[in-house]
Amino acid sequence: MKADVIIIGGGIVGSATAYYLAKRGVKDIIVLESSASIGHGASSRNGGGVRQSGRDVRELPVAMLAVQKFWPTLSEELGVNTEYTQEGNLRLGKTEAHMKKLNQLADNCKAMGLDVRMVDKQEAHTINPYLSDDVIGASFCPTDGHANPLTTTLGYYMKALEMGVHFYTHAKVKGLKKIKGKVSEVIMSDGEVLSAKTIILAAGYASRAIMNTIGLDIPMDDVIDGCIVTEMEPKMFSQMLGTAAADFYGHQTHHGSFVFGAVAGPEAYMDIPPETTNFAHPDTLGATCRAVEGYIPALARSKIVRSWTGWCDCTSDGVCVLGPVEEAPGLILACGFNGHGFGTAPAVAYMLAQMTCGEKPLLDLSALRYERFYD
């Protein structure tokens, strides 16, 4: 089977890239997803943050581009309700050490042109009156927000499908192959060989094993995160919340439920295959609930209706790998998003389409290149 472009990975980055390529007039596009459903991995398991504040300065321009150019009109473009809400992000602190950390993060972002500022206890509680008295301050970015990962990923998939993109599920990739020095073949687990002019590898942590087959490697780990969802509550607040202690993050959805995420506890030390669907461990649930209650006491009696875990492809330096590879012409990488990939996905996918079509991307992405690990 031949195509102009093969995209490995059917998450939001892969689906959105297929859409933007089809929109540019590329006719023969194949998306390969190893699981049974599109967006089965991190794209449907994240907390929905569309965040610029607190990011590494190397990826901050990508996050800012996504917020400025794509998110405000995405629901209309895709014909779905992405539930995009731009009511700011409060990153909360309870100690002077927390405030020092938040101040440094805010200064880094302000130096890059982002509107983010420190607020004292009074202003933080004015912005969100549900906060605990233990919160002594926060950083606040008014242009941050959140959206619904499920409807957004589905929107990109449906639009791409309408435009003639071929999606294949249960399509597990075994490796890549160079022909005359160019990466042009995809070897499937059943032995079938697919060929394309350009191959985009956007398969999360699975990208590492796939690129290993042609001698490439990224120092990257699969890190587990957990999410919980509460029952529907009366409307309380619209901001995205995070903490300097990184003990939880989350927001209230349009439906009324709260979605909170946290770094996993015991799961991180258990032998769990990344492709397995799991509920959060009871110890993780308890720790997350205690953290949330410590910042938002009004939620102390809220009931948890479901939980899940997901996997983050985390690079050794904390930012993604994005762009072509010098020693592997024909291949473009888009992986290692460190749990930040949902919010930046529209901008990332748009620029992947630009690169595939031989155009100069909207941003200078040299800081995110593969070769940085070996320079």
Features:
375 residues; alpha/beta; FAD/NAD(P)-binding domain; D-Amino Acid Oxidase, Chain A, domain 2; 2 domains; 8-stranded mixed beta sheet; 9 helices; 18 strands; globular
Give the structure's gist in a few sentences.
Helix content is 27%, strand content 27%. It has helices at 12-23, 60-70, 74-78, 96-110, 121-127, 149-162, 206-212, 282-295, 341-356, and strands spanning 2-8, 29-32, 49-50, 89-93, 117-120, 137-141, 145-146, 166-168, 173-179, 182-188, 193-201, 220-230, 240-243, 249-252, 258-263, 304-315, 321-324, 331-335.
Question: Overview of this structure, please?
Answer:
The chain is built from 9 helices and 18 strands. The model has no long low-confidence stretch (mean pLDDT 94). The radius of gyration is 20 Å and the shape is globular. Strands 1, 2, 8, 9, 10, 11, 17 and 18 form an 8-stranded mixed sheet that branches. Strands 5-6-4-13 form a 4-stranded mixed sheet. It folds into 2 domains: 174 residues, FAD/NAD(P)-binding domain; 153 residues, D-Amino Acid Oxidase, subunit A, domain 2 (D-Amino Acid Oxidase, Chain A, domain 2, 2-Layer Sandwich), CATH 3.30.9.10. Helix 1 packs parallel to helix 6 and helix 2 packs across helix 9. It has 375 residues and is α/β, with parallel strands linked by helices.
